[in-house]
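Final report, Chapter 2: Outcomes

The project's central promise was a pipeline that accepts a single protein chain and returns its three-dimensional structure in a standardized token representation, suitable for archiving and comparison. That pipeline is now operational. To close this chapter, we reproduce one record exactly as it appears in the project archive, with the input sequence first and the structure output second.
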Amino acid sequence: MNYQFDITLKNRTILNSFFEKCTLEELNKLPEGFNNNIIWNLAHVIVTQQLLVYGLSGLPMMANDELVAKYRKGAKVEGNVTQQEVDEIKNLLFSTLDKTKEDYKKGMFRNYNAYTTSTNSTMTNVEEAIAFNNFHEGIHLGYILALKRAL
């Protein structure tokens, strides 16, 4: 699992660079032809990881219900986010990964409710969820790169 966690860390380090490179206006900008903006995609990867790993394991998530509702699959930009919201999302980028690694080492993920994704991948345990999550985060990194070019 160390390899999977290392991939997540590397991807999130790249994702974190957008918090550094983009202004609040750029994070919120919704370019023509796109359904969501950079900050939505950044928050979405956090929420999705929490749902796939913790939610389907029946464990409490670090992302609160409001954040989950706003950034889960199928949600769309509802308006501009504040700097305070950006800071909260940025904080969760690494703290959720650190907690996942810690909880995995403690053996917290004993149960898992199988789930089939929209790409028709069925996850039956947390290891598969973590691996699939890396694929998912890579897709959204690609979206963010396209959004950045469109600004």
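Archive annotation: The chain has a mean pLDDT of 97.
This record, like all others produced under the grant, will remain available to the consortium after the project formally closes.
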